[in-house]
Amino acid sequence: MTKLFALCRLLAMSLLLQSAAHAAAPFARSSAPGFYRFMLGGYEITALNDGTLELPVDQFLTNTTPQKVDDVLAEDYLQSPLETSYNAFLINTGAKLILIDTGAGNIFGPRLGRLAANMKASGYAPSQVDEIYITHMHADHIGGLTTDGDMRFSNAIVRVNRGELDYWLSEANMAKAPEGNRGDQKGSYRRAMTIMEPYIRAGRVRPFDGNQELSPGIHAYQSAGHTPGHVGYMIESQGSRLMVVGDIVHVAAIQFEDPTVTVSFDSNSPLAEQERIKEFTRIAKDKILFAAAHVPFPGLGHLQTDKDGFRWIPLNYSAGK
Ligand SMILES: [Zn+2]
After folding, report:
1. Which fold has domain 33-314?
2. What's the CA-to-centroid distance between 226 and ligand 1, angstroms?
3. Does residue 7 surpass a pLDDT of 90?
């Protein structure tokens, strides 16, 4: 009996020791590699995450009040500063590899700039990218083009709206702008010039005008407001459509429900508001799949009209095929 008791004690102690050892494992902290893949007709789409940043959204949303923003966030179990996704989208047409936006590179610190690593984890190398389509020239969308002044995408042509390119490369616009790094401030021009320079020097920037097809099934659509030459890209294959909207929405929890809410770093907030409502309405009516840079990763879903605003329906999860 005593022997049995001793044996039980020994067993209990070893179990305790085991569980203590498990509890001592360090927190892993990071999530899975930031890519999400699905087929759109005959095209393969990979959403790539560049990382996240905590943004003081109650401070930069305009046409509302900080209190209102905090209240709506709280309804969704969120708060400001809000951890915000930075997404880009890679399209393999079968003939070409096209990247829409590039993330921030090393401009905003180590929480961003993960796009290239996530692209590699997803099975593609930056050197395989044939073309890069830019939605607009804010640093969190073009910063990933270069690393330490060198072209990160050594074989790619960069396509950008001519009006957008001219606006941000204009020394005269920069001279007029106030100091700072947000929106239409001097730092945004300076960054855009520095980032684009190696591609311009190598003859790899090909501007385009207006709404047009850049590649079979991929059209650029102008949606000026957030920046003067802001564009979205409609991707269509075998009757399926995906609209990569760029920055017509920054805070999903606020601006779907109330698309009249704007951001302080819009170039032209009333125009940005108008474009947001127009695009949301069209995308909801035509049941087009929606992809956005700052909607929680992978930033993909559908919109439905709802009361005075819109309801966001995230894409159903797929493990891929
Ligand atoms: Zn952005």
Report:
1. Metallo-beta-lactamase; Chain A (3.60.15)
2. 9
3. no
